[in-house]
Amino acid sequence: MRLEPKPAPSLAATLLYPVGAVVATLGFAALLVLAAGASPLSVFTLVARGAAGSQFALVETLTRATPLIFTGLAIAVAFRAKLWNIGAEAQLYAGAVVTVVLGTGLLPWPSLLLIPVIMIAAMLAGALLLLGPALLKTRFGVDEVVTTLLLNFIMLLFVSMLLEGVLKDPTGLGWPQSQKVIAEAQLPRIIQGKRLHYGFVIALAAAVAVWVVMKKTALGYEMRAVGHNPEAARFAGIPVNRVLMKTALLSGGLAALAGFSEVAGLKGNLTLDLSPGYGYSGIVVAMLAMLNPLGVIASAIFVAGIFVGADAMSRSAGVPSYIADVMVATALLTMVVAILLTRFRVRWR
Amino acid sequence: MAAKPPGGVRAAALGVSSGADISGKGRRALPQEPHPAASLPPSPQGGGEHRETVLRLQGITKRFGALVANDSISLDLARGEIVALLGENGAGKTTLMNILFGHYVADEGGVEAFGRPLPPGDPRAALDAGIGMVHQHFTLAENMTVLENIALGTQALWRPRLDRAAARARIAKLSADFGLAAEPDAPVASLSVGERQRVEILKALYRDAKILILDEPTAVLTPSESEALFRTLKLLVGQGLSIIFISHKLNEVTAVSDRVLVLRGGKLAGERPTAATSRAELAALMVGQDVALPPIVDVPYGGRILVLDEVSTGGKSSGAPLDRAALTLRGGEIFGLAGVSGNGQAALAALLSGSEPSTAGDILLDGEKHRPWSTREALDLGIGRIPEDRHAVGTIGDMTVAENLIAESYRSERFSRRGFLDWGAARTFAREIIADYDVKCPSPDTRIRLLSGGNMQKLILGRALDPEPRIVVANQPTRGLDVGAVAYVHAKLIEARGRGAAVLLISEDLEEIVALSDRVAVIFKGRISAPSKRGERSVRELGELMAGHGLEAAA
User: Fold this and answer.
1) What's the pLDDT tens digit per position in A306-332?
2) Domain B54-130+244-288, what fold?
3) B412 CB near a chain A CB, below 8 Å?
4) What is residue B247's three-state secondary structure?
5) Which end of chain B is less packed: N or C, by CB atoms within 10 Å?
């Protein structure tokens, strides 16, 4: 087997690659389902129905997609500039901590003022958290994969400390959880009585905004140039390090919005299980979208659908919902292969 | 089949017609030659005698999508023969060799070595059949000795230790037989480029190569080193080896080969016995048309735009740093800087381009002292830059032509407003450059990596020269380009000179330097020699300066 370079594929062909990756993922998952002693067809039907088969299912999927859109955008922005931000999980929690600190009564302001202030503060916190690894990368050449990844664990322990200490809810019966944010700090629900909240709308707006930045602005151009060829970018006079800093700020800020929206829109308070790995799933979301900000919306909904659908399926089919984790992880691998195949042709001999 | 190797004719071609060549007395002064007294070996075979075919490529066709890289190319190589494979970049030379070596599988056709077919797609088979390759970029481990490099990988995996004594004896015998002087215990890092190349050749011979393929072997050599290489090659074929010599330099091809195969656009454009052809004919075969250097008319000398006074750099760039280098660039001239690569050209280009600061000395711009500038400042000061490596530094391969063209000017009012880019204006600009600089490319939205080297270079020229810079820094602007593109680059540099710009032409191609430059200097180990006016120094004198002789006296 060998790889041969090939000319750039057409746009239509490019769109087929994520589809192919998903099909391959389903094929692999089908084998696992068979191994678990169930029928793949019925399991997939159950997953699909659980994800989109009813209004309840659909609302649940979109709710779950909201933080994934934010983290997916964060990753897409960073990866575009080849800043390997694996720390969206930590940045998410940074945003959540700020939301709880400012939103539990410290600032007794009306919603229209309070929510934007919290959003900005949360973004700043996430941005600052990624600034450190970015500085270490540009100044000393420290691998940001390592630093951002390890920061995830540091951040979780830090949150744990806060929840056992200063942020602990005195009325929480000893559970490690924070107080609920005040009503003014809460994002309203889109449909009364359903869990879907305005965080989803903010996420869509963020995706469009990021798309505009990447396509239309000088900054987006600089980020793509730095990502594709930093040496050539530097030679042409693009301030590579400054661009990487701006990328880090944007990426960290977007990931922090996921934490903000989960606390202010859904959970109300901060717990250690606020995110079941949204920061990591964001990598899959961004890759499936081939780093396209608008594609992130679709791939986030898809990944959320798998998680939500698998939960529903496991209740009725008896196949563990871990199949969702396996599928998402497999989707990442198949997508990486698919992206490789956009540039190379495989020859068997 | 009267392709006899006429040594006399070759020597004549070598001595007279080749500009980049130092012959005669120059030889004795150059210590790095293996056997100063070695003369050309006698012709291995008499004329007319039938010679055994050692390698046969038959009807090789290779397609990449719509592109036909090789279109039914056949090649026969006889024992004791040097065949030159001549062609522009993209003509299909490399593809053909990759097929021979099993890196690619041909769509049609086959390869036969010593009468036996080679299985397609098996690099090991080519090596086992006695085919050795010397790549343009050496594949040596720098921190190991010559002996270790040569013997590396030749011993069975289960043998725990290298049999040094046997290896040493074998290398000594090969060195003596073929006139390839090499010190087995020297670390490769300490060797000159020419010496490293000898090690590469020894490596192939050590593996019992009977057919040697050299890919652009002279690209990194001084003229005298090249000549030493040519004599080595003659010795090798004298001992019954066969050689394929890949090049796009006409003078080398005529100097060294017995037979020339010219590739153009993936097809075999012609095959000529070297003795019965001329450089003009080969050039015409190569490009399919006649090319000539545009006339250089005298333009009034401008003032001293840029002066470097005893300037040193810190060694951030590859190769030697500048060491108290002095240089004066005037308007309306092309200043040619010759030198073997790695002697400080990169540092000088980086300094003027704004990528590396100076550590000592004065930089004067229009007579006033100026601190070292950044890349952005360089552009603002009116310095147009053509980088040495157009793939790694000059262009961003996965971005479009338009995106690449605005890389130096996207912040100007023309292309951006309040942080938003005007893609319409960028595309319009790209269309202008594509038209003005005669770039063959389908649209401004084409990814630049899909273009040929020549078209890429034209776009870089357009980007650098369109703002009409006062200083042009062109570092190896024609390296790896085909004859047509080279002529185009030259014309554009002459045009900039005619406009009154100061053009610094850094090149390893002496012929190019001599043909274009109003003044010439040589860079050696970070020092720049005193300049000489057009015609003041002979090519041989420049060659000696390039080798480091008499630079101190001259400087």
Assistant:
1) 889 888 888 888 788 888 888 888 888
2) Rossmann fold (3.40.50)
3) no
4) strand
5) N
